[in-house]
Specification:
Strands 1-2-3-4 form a 4-stranded antiparallel beta sheet, with helices on one face. The termini are far apart. The chain has one domain. Strand 2 and strand 3 form a beta hairpin. The chain is an alpha+beta fold.
Length: about 80
């Protein structure tokens, strides 16, 4: 596997472990295919070619929809 793949996955894993330790982060897997739409809060993005996506929320309420293999962020929302 290449570093380009491993680094984003490793960083997501570290964030998840830190979240478990501090209790301030949530990491929820969601499945999206080409026919499913991302929740409205993420705008008009569509599923990522049948790959699993991750919804990551930090302690400040920032929510990101991330493709774990590429590290691509499909949307970011700040909850108030």
């Amino acid at each position: 596997m290449t570093r380009r793949f491993l680094l984003p996955v490793f960083l997501l894993f570290l964030g998840f472990i830190a979240g478990l330790y501090t209790g301030q982060h949530k990491l929820l897997p969601v499945y999206a295919d080409a026919n499913s739409s991302i929740p409205q809060s993420f705008g008009s993005c569509r599923g990522a070619m049948g790959n699993e996506l991750l919804i990551f929320e930090d302690h400040s309420g920032t929510v990101r929809l991330v493709h774990p293999a590429s590290g691509t962020v499909f949307g970011t929302v700040v909850r108030k």
